[in-house]
Amino acid sequence: MIDQARQTATLGTLTQALGKETVDTSPQTLARYAAPGMVPAGVVLPADEAQLARVLEAARTSGGVVQTVCNGAYGLEKAVQDKVIVLDLQKMNKVLEVNDELATCLVEPGVTFRQLDAHIKEKGIKLWVDFPGNPDESVAASFINRRPGYTPYSDHFLMQCGLEVMLADGKMVRTGMGAMPKSTCWQLFKFGYGPWVDGLFTQSDFGVVTKVGMWMMPQPPAHQTFMVAVPKEDDLGPLLDVLGPLKLNMVVANGVAVGNALHEAALLGKRRADFEGQGPMAASAVKAAGESLGLGYWNLYGSLYGLPDNVAILWDMVKGAFSSISGARVIVDGKGVDPKLWAWRMGSMTGVVTDPPARTAGWSGDMALTVNPVSPVDGEEAVKLYELSRDICAKNGFDFVGETTAIWRSANHRQVLSHAAGKGEDAARAKTCAEALIAAQAEAGFGQILTDPGLGAAVAKTYEKGGRSALHARVKQALDPNSIFASV
């Protein structure tokens, strides 16, 4: 439990040192960062590294506990502990470099995908920005949280190259080739010399990321986007079985999204109340809901890239493979699909950074908890995960609203538990359901790859074997002996 007196002392010191414009304790601001049962004591918004160092110094001397977020301006990042001081880096938002020839960028943590895209367009640079679905998410946060996008550069952790971090004692560290004073390859070669430590600062409480380098995708000569809609609930297995070899052999190179009918309906701004019946929807109702929108029970979005002749050859292969599924519709022109959904889904695979038609949290409320298990890109395993998750959701009164993103050899799942803000019983029910999902999925061999505030303890319980927690504790003690960074 965080000591409120120490938090108050830390905020007082920071207000005196940095000014009231840097420290915000207004109820409206605190509400934007609050998660169920967790309201921050205050929000500090440093404008540069010097102010950031002052924040960490105040936390060390006053015994304060801070939680770093990259951009809380849009309510995307929430408090992970009650009474924590949120250290929001949104004002540190410079695009430091975009290298057109080598296809790299270097940005501060407050830079959003929308801002980076605008910078590239203003400069006339022919590079694509890969984003995880929300243009207002921080580029650095997507790396820190290991969130996937939808182009061939969808693995943001893999595409990161070069990191600058401020440690708890205020010292700055540059990783990889950035540790060499005159290096010409900080954003080009990931590893430098000796142990590679960048991963220590993802999903962790070990330091504050102040700069992040990323590889970016050059615009390809040609591409072919497509959608595959399959009509039945049990078509998920065949759909993933066809996709698996195509991903393994890098035929379909992008982060392939597979959304169920309710997920896509939610993306279009539809709500549970728009459809007949009450309570969790039966499979027949989900199928009917999809059909009413021109969608399948499951809807896959993929793209091919390369030289025009090569894309044409690959397209014949891919179209034939998915057409082998009974009842599948392979769509390239958007016919029969809502134009807003079609434009956003196709754009997300081709570097078009724009808002989705709606937020999936609106399906049966206005906020959501998400559960994020990972499975192989394999039909049998995906069905096993889906069925146990669907049943637990229904038992707790939730529809199954989910999207899967296939990257390399894994399928990263995002299951949305939508509920109403301001209703404590709804939030509690969502948390109970999420914890039940996490436990059951782990028992079946499906681990979580990221988690929402309030669920970290439930996820940590599933990763206890092999000395993981003991190793993290040893690193924490070495890098943050005063525990000024809140546990995530």
From TrEMBL:
Q: Is NAD tagged as a keyword?
A: no
Q: Does the keyword Flavoprotein apply?
A: yes
Name the UniProt key words of this record, in alphabetical order.
FAD, Flavoprotein
Q: What is this protein called?
A: FAD-binding PCMH-type domain-containing protein
Write out the GO MF terms: D-lactate dehydrogenase (cytochrome) activity; D-lactate dehydrogenase (NAD+) activity; FAD binding
Provide one Gene Ontology biological process annotation.
lactate catabolic process
- Name the Pfam families for this protein: FAD_binding_4 (PF01565)
Per UniProt, residues of the FAD-binding PCMH-type domain are 36-219
